Amino acid sequence: MAKGSQLTQLKSALAQAGLNRQPHSSKKRKHGAVSRETDKDKKAQKLHEINQRLNPFDVKVTKLKHDVGGRKIKGAAGKPQASKQAGIEQRRKTLLKEYEQRNHSGGIIDRRFGENDPAMTPEERMLERFTKERQRAAKGVAFNLEDEDELTHYGQSLSKIDDFDDAGLGLDDDGDEESDGKIDKDTVKRVHFGGFEDEEKEGEEGEPPRKKSKAEVMAEVIAKSKQHKAQAQRQLDADARHQLDEELNDIRGLLFANGNADAVSSELAKENKDEDLDYDQHVRELALDKRAKPKDRTKTEEELALEAKEALEKAERKRQRRMMGEDDESSEDESGRSGKRLRRTAAADDLDDDFVDEDKVEWDGLGAGLEADASEKEQSSDEEVEEGAEDSSKNDEDEDDADEGFEESDEAADSDADSLAPGSKLTTTKKCKGKAVGQELPFTFTCPETFDDFLEIIEDIDEKDVPTVIQRIRTLYHPSLGQDNKFKLQALTGVLIDYILHVTAPPTPSFQLLPLLLPHIRSLTKSYPIESANYFISKLKLMQKNLTRGLSKGATSLDSKTWPGTSELALLWFISHAWPASDMKHPVVSPARLLMGAYLGLGRVRSLNDIASGLFLSTLFLQYEEYSKRLVPEVTVFLLNTILHLAPHSFKDAESIPGSFPSPDFKGALCRTLQVSKTAARDLLPHPPNLVKLLAEDTIDSEQNKVDLFVTSLDLMRNTADLYKGSDGFIEMFQPAMEILQSISTAWTSEPVKAKVANTKDTINRLLKFARQSRKPLALQAHKPIPIATYIPKFESHSSGYLRKNDPDQERAAATKLRYQYKQERKGAIRELRKDARFMASIKEKEQQEKDRSYTDRMNKVFASIERERAEQKKMEKEKAKEKRRAGRK
């Protein structure tokens, strides 16, 4: 190849190939088309070869280190430019299409009811779809095809209209051509070979006739042919049926050749008649069969609350009419039916379903004239209404702070302590009275705003009916039924808490209502947590104030109140059930725990009442820490001191007691009478202590009460040890307790008490044994030893690369090959991903450049138009200036 520049080399290559010559323009010699195509192919091939020689980057050759003759190596020569262009084209077809359609959405989405719900069975899906369909049908359909007997077109039935009547394709009367399915002569004459005269004449007046296209003519021919064939087939079917009807008797005679044909015919007729009777009977059974009724739609919470309220108001109106002695016929306008059951004497054919014996009619307190069945139905309906209202009230929102009836005064400081329960200073007649004989519980009540209002409402109502009254108040004043109902229910929360403190206050506390009122307070607390928490906290603050006042008078003074009473304990019990006690930090539970710990840690034991109150607090602590298992040392200390106060032991003074827990009342002046008498308690059996009686009254220190409290303290000690058995300090906490239990003398006790003591000892001893076994001394963190660095060279037994690739171990060789393939595939995938990223970056860059260019063009056009306008404006201003100057000169 000639040397020089690229242009020189190109000219030399074209000259050598004979491509630089100009073609002859002589008109005498003209070659054919074949020779011209051949010359083009040869010329293109030569140009391609010249391009390959001149462009050294089109082919890349890998230089071999050792050239071996006859060996073919794959990938020694490559075309990077061609492969790159092929990759770009492939990405334009795949990756670019996906990028352009990235925001497109297609496909069919199945939106049928319950189709994508795996929890629904096929029967439930079908039932729900049927329900939705019936609900849509109930609203009315725009086009109901079943309203008329027949849907006609121009007075004709659809079943009588032939599809080919309007096409003008009538059938020929010739039976031969109709039977053989051929096209009639008229069609051949008009359409085939020289027809179309009629079609050309068709057309509107004043317009030239339009000639039909070939496609239209062939469509008509095909339609007529199909029509003739269908008509011929129908005629053949009719003839076959007619022939079979005529030959039916002959066939029947062949089938029953041995018998009488008439007898056979009568028998067949009889069988057909029986079958018809069975069919009619089956149809009547299906008609009388009870059909499945579709379910109504699920009602909302507001609708359920409204129905419950209306049911209560309706029942109250009926009750008022019964009390006034009015007839039930007046209620037909509201209920739509007669509300009074007619009384009559029994007849012979009665089923005893509505018979009421007048001699046996007794009034059961539910209203005059009401039977037991009616009252039960009414009660069940009330329960359903109340349950629905309770469920609906669980989703209410915030709650107000209701502190009515609970105020502190300076005068109360002179007394013993502020009373926690409002209304406790009232007379006992202010508490719930039993309702008068013959009075029925009303169905509607006003929502109390204060505690005194609530006492007026329940003044003549039995205590067992108070939860029903509360439920009906919540139902009537559901938050969704009025704007102010939410604030009324927030006030009701505080009223209920005050009522609980009132009924549990001495001298006659009652705890039967606590489990019944707990669901209502829990539901209201969940609905209005902030206001309820503020009310509970205000009560806890008053309890803390009373404790501080009692401690200031002297913890050992008999007049100071340093232990909670029945009302305070009821409030703490409600806190444990109304709020989550396992939270790490809680605005209500955390202050309650601190207050309970202060009672146990700062209170001094003076009587059995104090011990009973402390044991109740210990039980509450076990309930509080059931899940969180937070350590409360005050409980263990109080239980050990209680055991030392009640049971005879061998300790002489406080210094001899094992452990380091405080025991300020050990053998004190007030605690000497608390120890059990060895002679009087020998035959006493343990019973659950009556904490209500012990807390409400100044009871005498009887031996039975002491034994009961001693056994209760043993049970609590055992439960406490089981609660804290996983604690790290279990040995240090309960080793002194084990020594104290071992020093207790059991000679004075009965056999059940001895069994309790032995059981407690065995439990704590076993837990201590397990704790000692699980305790291990501290050690450094275990870790894998670090080997010492070595500098010995690594020798390979097989230095040949061929032997390394051909490992005699087949599994190891397969694993090595798989790792190599994985490595190569991973590199290839990374390389392709990088190429894809570069391709997409170039596409996005081009899009951005196109956007910038279009934006620049638009802005240039705008600026150009503005500049033209500005130039014209300046030109006009100059012209005006010239005119002014000319005018001035003149």
TrEMBL record:
GO terms for cellular component: Noc4p-Nop14p complex; small-subunit processome. It is found in: Nucleus, Nucleolus. Residues 24-33 have a biased composition (Basic residues). One of its GO terms (biological process) is maturation of SSU-rRNA. Residues 1-54, 70-89, 99-122, 157-215, 288-425, 866-890 are annotated as: Disordered. Belongs to the NOP14 family. This is Nop14-like protein. It comes from Sanghuangporus baumii. The lineage of its organism: Eukaryota, Fungi, Dikarya, Basidiomycota, Agaricomycotina.
